[in-house]
Structures are given as structure tokens and as C-alpha cells.
Design goal:
A nine-stranded mixed beta sheet has the order 1-2-5-4-3-6-7-8-17, with helices on both faces. It has an eight-stranded mixed beta sheet with strand order 11-10-9-12-13-16-15-14. The protein folds into two domains: 232 residues, Adenosylhomocysteinase-like (Rossmann fold), CATH 3.40.50; 154 residues, NAD(P)-binding Rossmann-like Domain (Rossmann fold). The radius of gyration is 22 Å and the shape is globular. The protein is of the alpha/beta class. Helix content is 44%, strand content 17%. Helix 1 crosses helix 4, helix 3 packs parallel to helix 15 and helix 8 runs antiparallel to helix 15. InterPro entries: Adenosylhomocyst_ase-like_sf, Adenosylhomocysteinase-like, Ado_hCys_hydrolase_NAD-bd, NAD(P)-bd_dom_sf, S-Ado-L-homoCys_hydrolase_CS. Keywords: Cytoplasm, Hydrolase, NAD, One-carbon metabolism.
């Protein structure tokens, strides 16, 4: 572990490798590059103290470099104890001069000490991935709130927490729900989560997905992505949902839909993507067959009732990296991946850079928007304006060399009129 005034990382000697990987990711993030070039010229964030609680990955590093290019005085910590890429954390500190507090596998005490370290920066703006930074500000560091201009939130889970805070009247500054931008959740959540979740399961287990029964809990955009990619691998997919409309969508998309307790006896691999608690509970785990795999791709490991699993088991051992085998009294074995934490970032590298390009473009433009408009905003949850959302999509298509149609003057007039009829 290397501790300094510039952060707390595992080993600064890892920095050269981290820099190489950050540069590799940058090749597939052209939208963020265009924003960085403009930021470097215009300095829209000059002097703004910013604290970020994010997954410390190669893609996040490119966001951090962009924010710094725009003039931000930025400090980072990890938003999950297992998602940090140690070489990237080292590179951020020694190669890019961005103070970073993140060590893969850090315990809970270290995790929250790192959050408090970035809050010691006395931020004017926050950037969250799961709302732990904002929740800490609203509980133990309330003295800092008067200096906060606003914040950004990246995840579904974090947005759920923020809406709860808003509803209860405790949210004390405006926050942009970056997750709700079309160019974020339609792509990051669906294509990114779909691919990276299965990538992590394959990396950690080397299991063949074809012919297996995969049970997906949740059919939001993340669940849609996981189910689609699992089907593409030849798996038999079952979807478990509490929302009747989403359950109906899953049926019409060709999947079996049933209660989770029924699916528990049929599944080979179970994946949670809901943002809720105890989605896989004791009743489910009691019915699972020998050799079942359990993975979570939601932000918190609350989705799996791990204490109940520990209670059911008579033994536990680590059989592969990121695979814990629990033995039941009757001899069955159930395997928990990545300690129940978000598997795609714990046991693999998270979403591909290409999709994070749009997500982090939202974060970068969101920080600029928040700085320019915070005085007009109330302590509520907001989304990025549609024109900025569509600009990100336009830039992405341009970078991909894809042209698309535009409306003619006649079509514009028609769509904005009511006179024409049958």
C-alpha cells in the first residue's frame, strides 16, 4: 500500500501499466476526447473543487483526465471495494497528478475512510456512482453541504436513493441523474451490463453458457441486456420480475417468466440486476441445485441475502478467484461470485470503453451544466437536457462514421402543425 498526500493506492510501481491501459481505453472513447479538447481550450471547470466516488477503471480515468483538462481540482475514491483497478489508481496519482484513494479489496473501514478523505477536499461539486458520497455528506459531513453547488449520479441504484432523499425532503442540493439520460441507460445499462456481466461470469468460472438455464432477476435496461446476451450465448433464459408491464415485455421478448422461488429449482446461473434488497433470499437458495452459480450485477451486494447463505452452509471455501463455494448439509454446493458484489467490475473490467464513452460524456457535460445552472435549480433530482443528450448521440455517430437523416423544412413544419388531417 502506498499512502501519500496525493492519495492511498496499492503500489505506485504499477503506474506504467495503468497508463498503457488508460491510453488503450482512450482509443475507443472519441466523444470524450472531443469534449476534452474543448474543455482544455475553454476551461469551464476552472478552479472548481470536485470529489468523485467512482469505479476506478481505465474508462473512469479518461473521465478524470477530461475533468482536469477542463480546470477541475479533482480528487477520487472508489465507489466499490472490489471494482478498483490498482494499476489505474497508481497511474492517476503518479502519471496524471489526480489524488486517488482506492485499493482493490479494501475493507469497509478503509472504504469509508477514503470517502472521508475525498470529502476533506471540501468539494463544491460531487460525482457519485451509487450515492455513497452524497449519503455520507447528508449524515456525517453535513458541515460541508453549504459549499456544495450540486452533484452528478451515474447509477440506477444511486438515483433510487436520491429520489428517496428528495421524497423525504432531506436532499439539500441539486443532483443530475446522469443514469436517466438516454445516451447512458439505453446503452451503458443494456449493452454494457449485458456484455460485461457475462464476461465476468465466464472469466471467473470458465463455464459454458450454451444449454444452461440462466435466471435473470429484474427486466429493466440492465436485465434486458443480460437476458439478450445470455440468449445469444445459447442459454435458456428465465426472467423474474415484480412489475407486470416489464414481465409482459419479457414474455413477448421470448423468455419464460415465473416467480423467483419457482425458478430457483430450475436455474444453473442466477443474476440479479434490480437495485433492491434480498432479491435472492433464503427461500430461493434452499431450492437451488448442486453446482448453482449466483452473481449480482447491481451496485450493492444487498441483492443477495449473503447472511442467509452463510447460515445455510456448513462449509465455505475459495475454489477460484472470485468464486466462493458454499456446502450445504445435504452435500449440495452453491457458488457465490465476487462476494456478491457487482460481478462485472469485481471479476472483470466492467463495461467496454466504447459504451462508457457516452456515459462519461454525460458526466463531463453534466458537470458543466450544473456549474452554469445550479443557481436556478432546487434541491431535487434532474436529468440532463435533451439537446445535450442528443448532441452526445450525434457525436458518437460522427465518430463511428455513420450518417443519418435530418428533417426537411416541410417535415419540420408538418410535425409542428395541427391543421393537416385525413
Amino acid at each position: 500500500m502506498t499512502t501519500s498526500t496525493r492519495g492511498d493506492v496499492k503500489d505506485l510501481s504499477l503506474a506504467p501499466r495503468g497508463k498503457d491501459r488508460i491510453e488503450w481505453a482512450a482509443k475507443d472513447m472519441p466523444v470524450l476526447r472531443l469534449i476534452r479538447e474543448r474543455f482544455a481550450k475553454e476551461q469551464p471547470l476552472k478552479g472548481v473543487r470536485m470529489s468523485g466516488c467512482l469505479h476506478i477503471t481505465t474508462e473512469t480515468a479518461n473521465l478524470a483526465i477530461t475533468l482536469k483538462a477542463g480546470g477541475a481540482d479533482l480528487v477520487l475514491c472508489a465507489s466499490n471495494p472490489l471494482s478498483t483497478q490498482d494499476d489505474v489508481a497508481a497511474a492517476l496519482v503518479s502519471e496524471y497528478g489526480i489524488p486517488t484513494y482506492a485499493i482493490k479489496g479494501e475493507d469497509e473501514k478503509t472504504y469509508y475512510s477514503h470517502i472521508n478523505s475525498v470529502l476533506d477536499h471540501n468539494p463544491q461539486m460531487t460525482m457519485d456512482d451509487g450515492c455513497d458520497l452524497v449519503s455520507t455528506l447528508h449524515t456525517t459531513r453535513t458541515d460541508l453541504i453549504p459549499g456544495i453547488i450540486g452533484g452528478m449520479e451515474e447509477t440506477t441504484t444511486g438515483v433510487i436513493r436520491l429520489h428517496s432523499m428528495e421524497k423525504q425532503g432531506v436532499l439539500r442540493f441539486p443532483v443530475l441523474a446522469v443514469n436517466d439520460s438516454d445516451t447512458k441507460h439505453l446503452f451503458d445499462n443494456r449493452y454494457g451490463t449485458g456484455q460485461s456481466t457475462l464476461d465476468a461470469i465466464i472469466r471467473s468460472t470458465n463455464v459454458l453458457l450454451a444449454g444452461r438455464t440462466i435466471v435473470v432477476f429484474g427486466y429493466g435496461w440492465c436485465g434486458r441486456g443480460v437476458a439478450s446476451r445470455a440468449h445469444g450465448h445459447g442459454a435458456n433464459v428465465i426472467v423474474c420480475e415484480v412489475d407486470p408491464t416489464r414481465a409482459l415485455e419479457a414474455v413477448m421478448d421470448g423468455y419464460r417468466v415465473m416467480p423467483g422461488v419457482e425458478a430457483a429449482a430450475l436455474g444453473d446461473i442466477f443474476i440479479t440486476v434490480t437495485g433492491d434488497i434480498n432479491v435472492i433470499d433464503q427461500a430461493h437458495m434452499e431450492k437451488m441445485k448442486d453446482g448453482a452459480l449466483i452473481a449480482n450485477s447491481g451496485h450493492f451486494n444487498d441483492e443477495i441475502n449473503i447472511p442467509a447463505l452463510e447460515k445455510l452452509a456448513t462449509g465455505k471455501r475459495r475454489v477460484r478467484d472470485f468464486v466462493d463455494e458454499y456446502t450445504y448439509a445435504d452435500g449440495r454446493h452453491v457458488h457465490l461470485l465476487a462476494e456478491g458484489r457487482l460481478v462485472n467490475l469485481s471479476a472483470a473490467e466492467g463495461h467496454p470503453a466504447s459504451v462508457m464513452d457516452m456515459s462519461f460524456a454525460n458526466q463531463a457535460l453534466g458537470s458543466e451544466f450544473m456549474l452554469n445552472h445550479a443557481k436556478e435549480l432546487k434541491p431535487q433530482v434532474y436529468t440532463l437536457p435533451q439537446d445535450l443528450d442528443k448532441e452526445i448521440a450525434r457525436l458518437k455517430l460522427h465518430a463511428m462514421g455513420i450518417k443519418f437523416d435530418t428533417l426537411t423544412e416541410e417535415q419540420e413544419k408538418y410535425l409542428n402543425s395541427w391543421e393537416s388531417g385525413t
